[in-house]
Design brief:
Helices cover 42% and strands 14% of the residues. 45% of the residues are buried. By secondary structure, it is of the alpha/beta class.
């Protein structure tokens, strides 16, 4: 099957987490184990790693890759949004570093039956955890035109959301939209002719929107940051790799709020909330992949790395 997933900005991530021996690190989206392996090597001989993923196939691959470090590794099937609960159940009070690598892995994109990619014809699924929840097909077939428009506009930031939603409803009334190729064709048909000159495929934003909705990714990200900060020890680092503006905005704002502490209205003469700063933002501007990495891994082009430190 080839490489399961190429970890993005590997050296930058390890530097951002300030990896050291004897510490505890949590890779909340362990994937194929690329970042996790580098963390374990950087924390030898006694650093510990907890790897979390909701995708069973990712956990199986990570277990193979991290086998040489099995005495220092614990893999958990779960959602990164539940990091606080997961660590509490493991009796881990504080972690020294937490990593969130958001988005879709190369394996998920390149495995047709996962239904993430419009370049591979397959049943519409898009679930990270295929054992639960509604698939993209379920949403496409059951949501109203207004609901589809809101979803595509909000999560895909698609300007043509109304046209796409109308096209979906019109076409599904004629025949079910069962596959990724079916949906891509419906989206393309809804677009103006000059849309073909755009840099990205016309269906990109619609597929992104459906994936986010199916996996409840943005709500999960809010919970993961809040829960992770509760489990981060003093001086611990929280690093997040995002792949689109919605994710990056959530991370940036959460880190800024943690650094500011007080969220009282600016015209209030005295603080009434009583909140104090809990974070120091390490990356004032996000770190992005260099030219060499982009040349070897074009899928990294939209990645942004932000880091904050617990104070």
């Amino acid at each position: 099957m080839g490489i399961f997933h190429i970890p993005v900005m590997l050296k930058e991530v390890i530097a951002s987490l300030n990896c050291r021996a004897g510490a505890v690190y949590v890779d909340c989206t362990v994937g194929g184990g690329g970042h996790a392996e580098a963390i374990l090597r950087s924390t030898a001989p006694d650093g510990m790693l907890i790897g979390i993923d909701t995708d069973e196939e990712a956990l199986e691959e990570a277990a193979k890759r991290l086998a040489p470090f099995k005495n220092r590794t614990t893999l958990v099937k779960g959602n990164f949004a539940d990091i606080d609960t997961i660590l509490a159940e493991m009796k881990i009070k504080k972690a020294n570093g937490i990593l969130l690598d958001l988005g879709v892995s190369s394996h998920q994109l390149d495995t047709a039956d996962r239904g993430f990619s419009f370049t591979l014809d397959a049943p519409l699924d898009m679930r990270m955890d295929r054992s639960r929840g509604r698939s993209a097909y379920d949403l496409i077939q059951t949501l109203s035109e207004d609901e589809l428009e809101r979803l595509i506009r909000k999560y895909g930031e698609e300007r043509m959301a109304r046209r796409v939603a109308r096209s979906i409803v019109e076409n599904r009334n004629f025949a079910p939209i069962r596959t990724t190729a079916d949906l891509a064709a419906v989206v393309i048909k809804a677009m103006p002719r000059d849309n073909a000159r755009q840099r990205i495929h016309p269906a990109t934003r619609t597929f992104q929107a459906l994936r986010i909705a199916v996996n409840d990714e943005l709500a999960g990200l809010h919970r993961a940051i809040a829960g992770g900060m509760e489990r981060l020890g003093q001086g611990g680092r929280f690093s997040v790799i995002s792949f689109h503006s919605l994710e990056d905005r959530i991370v940036k704002n959460a880190f800024r709020i943690g650094e500011k502490g007080c969220f009282c209205p600016p015209d209030l003469p005295v603080c009434a909330c009583g909140r104090t700063p809990t974070l120091k933002v390490v990356t004032r501007k996000p770190i992005v992949p260099g030219a060499a990495e982009l040349s070897s891994n074009p899928r990294a082009r939209s990645a942004k790395l932000r880091t904050a430190e617990r104070i």
